[in-house]
Amino acid sequence: MKNVLFSVFALAINVSAYSQLSWSSQNSAFTAVSTGINPLAVVDNNTVWALGYDGSASGANFQTFSKTTNAGTTWTSGSINVGNANYLISDLTAVSGTTAWVTATPTAGGNGGGVWKTTNSGTTWTKQTTASFSSNASFANTVHFWDENNGVAMGDPTGTLFEIYTTTNGGTTWTKLTSASVAPATSGEYGYVHLKEVAGDNVWFGTSTGRIFKSANKGVTWTVVSTPLSDFGGLAESGKIAIKDANTAWILSDLGTVYSTTNGGTSWSTISTITQSSDITFVPGTTSTLIAVGNGTGSSISTNGGTSWTTIESSNSIVSVAALNASTIFGGGFNTSSTSGGAYKLLGSLAVNDVTNQRKNSFRIFPNPTKGEVNIKTDKKIKSTSVLDLSGKIVSRGDSGKVDLSSFTKGTYLLQVEFADGTTSTEKIIKN
Question: Looking at domain 15-354, which CATH architecture does it have?
Answer without folding.
Answer: 6 Propeller (2.120)
